[in-house]
Specification:
Layout: H1 2-16, E1 26-28, H2 33-37, H3 42-45, E2 46-48, E3 54-57, H4 60-66, E4 67-69, E5 80-88, E6 93-103, E7 110-118, E8 126-134, E9 142-149
Parallel strand pairs: 7-9
Antiparallel strand pairs: 1-6, 2-4, 3-5, 5-8, 6-7
Length: 150
């Protein structure tokens, strides 16, 4: 009986460790300053001196130094880091949608897709986008893709 159990366990271990196994990406929860701290209209009411780029803010001191606007909350930087950026648009916009923070299980990199849905107005705003992401490791990399939909 003991040999039978050893054979079965060996088979299970070998079959579960196949080179053909593929990992699945993990979607991590993100939130916003609107949801967590009651800020409103952050695309227009919050500003940071950036052009067509983003940064990760990891402390209240850096947030207070770099960001201006009507809503300047005390962010829980023990739980979150703030990804914040600017995007110049060709028209006005109706919405900004964050498609989730995805962790690639093969290389550990994170990806965030930000979609701007434009409207027919003639204004061409330079808007601020942001996401409160789970606290990152020092070497974590986030790839941000910006998509505009007319």
């Amino acid at each position: 009986m003991r040999k039978f159990i050893v054979v079965i366990l060996s088979f299970v271990l070998v079959s579960s460790c196949s080179d053909d196994d593929q990992c699945s990406p993990v979607v991590l929860d993100i939130t916003s300053l609107e949801n967590e701290y009651g800020c409103i209209n952050t695309p227009y009411q919050m500003d940071i001196d950036l052009t067509e780029e983003f940064i990760i803010i990891r402390s209240q001191e850096v947030f207070d130094d770099l960001v201006t606007g009507n809503c300047m909350p005390q962010i829980d930087f023990t739980a979150y880091d703030l990804l914040i950026g600017k995007k110049g648009l060709t028209n006005g916009f109706d919405s900004i949608v964050y498609d989730g923070l995805v962790k690639n299980c093969e290389n550990g990199q994170l990806s965030l897709a930000v979609t701007f849905t434009l409207n027919a107005t003639a204004e061409a705003p330079n808007v601020t986008y942001h996401a409160l992401v789970p606290k990152l490791g020092v070497n974590d990399i986030i790839n941000v893709s910006l998509v505009t939909i007319n």
